[in-house]
Design goal:
Blueprint: E1 2-6, E2 14-16, E3 20-26, E4 38-44, E5 54-60, E6 65-67, E7 71-72, E8 78-84, E9 94-95, E10 99-104, E11 109-114, E12 118-120, E13 123-125, E14 127-132, E15 141-147, E16 157-163, E17 175-177, E18 181-189, E19 198-199, E20 203-208
Length: 209
């Protein structure tokens, strides 16, 4: 039996990016003696135990239990497989099932840029959004809007709702401005099951003659 635990010794299946975790495995039998020997922990930088693993070999069992060294959760999550080398003619060698941990983010970021911050009447402008601090497979949407006040709360003009795929989102729709004045763009990320929502800054746009 293998579990992933955090610094409070709690079993976890999700954890924030940057959290320190470790794997703990128990080798036991309902009929035989306490298992002796060693295990190898294979750590994968994804949730599917695929690709190249980092292996910690020869970890001694104590009362049938062994702990891996700690590691830090990355944006792709992580997973473990554990190999038990066996114990003479008492227990055969065996490999555990894949045990995975999904990364989460509570510190989402969004950085936005206008195609131009000062334009002539009749010009179209769009906004781009760069998301940061998210899990690698982040989804959700970014809603773009244009407002008449610097709190981005008044007279919204919809500039498109774009789907986030693996943490990346396309730019807003282009909006044409036909009246002199100052308008404000804002992008709002919805968040998803594993990533927190976040609003971009209220960005001014000057429309001149």
């Amino acid at each position: 039996d293998t579990q992933i635990k955090n610094g409070s010794n709690a079993v976890v299946t999700t954890a924030s990016i940057g959290t320190a975790v470790r794997a703990q495995t128990t080798v036991a039998s309902t009929t035989g003696p306490v298992a002796l020997g060693t295990v190898d922990f294979s750590l994968y930088p994804n949730t599917t135990c695929s690709g190249t693993a980092t292996t910690q070999s020869g970890v001694l069992l104590a009362s049938g239990v062994a702990d891996s060294s700690t590691t830090t959760v990355g944006s792709n999550g992580l997973s473990y497989k554990v190999f038990y080398g066996g114990q003479g003619d008492v227990y055969a060698s065996t490999t555990s099932n894949c045990v995975s941990l999904q990364a989460t983010s509570v510190s989402s970021g969004i950085n936005t840029t206008l195609s131009s911050s000062t334009v002539l009447v009749g010009t179209s402008v769009y906004q781009t959004a760069l998301l940061s601090g998210l899990t690698a497979n982040a989804t959700g949407t970014v809603a773009y809007g244009v407002y008449t006040n610097n709190a981005c709360t008044a007279d919204k003009v919809d500039a498109g709702v774009k789907t986030v795929t693996n943490g990346v989102v396309s730019q807003s729709n282009s909006i044409q401005f036909n009246t002199v004045g100052t308008l404000y763009f804002q992008a709002k990320y919805s968040g998803d099951q594993f990533n927190s929502a976040v609003n971009g800054t209220c960005q001014p746009l000057s429309v001149i003659n």
